[in-house]
Amino acid sequence: VQLQASGGGLVQLGGSLRLSCAASGSGFSADVMGWYRQAPGKQRELVASILRGGLTDYADSVKGRFTISRDNAKNTVSLQMNSLKPEDTAVYYCNAKVLIGTAVNNYWGQGTQVTVSS
Prior knowledge:
- The chain is an all-beta fold and 118 residues long.
- Helix content is 0%, strand content 58%.
- The chain contains no helices and eleven strands.
- The strands form two sheets. Strands 2, 4, 5, 6, 9, 10 and 11 form a seven-stranded mixed beta sheet that branches.
């Protein structure tokens, strides 16, 4: 299974970016897909996640500004980021989880840099 993320870049304060991630692998289907981010000197944190059925969850810091969506047929997940702030600057990682009983298999993309300038 491979996750390929794209869409990062440099944007000014208040701007928008859209991240996309495609999961490939024969028969792969994720129960949960999401985005994490890691800023320099900080721990990786959950930004947003979405279940197969569409239920979403967001970090408090991005609620109202970011929107996560997924296409189950295409095995893709996207993150629309609006009203970006300098504190959103980080490497963003696509994540997919497959739940097997009580076990969780995590798959990660390669990370894409998002830089917000003030």
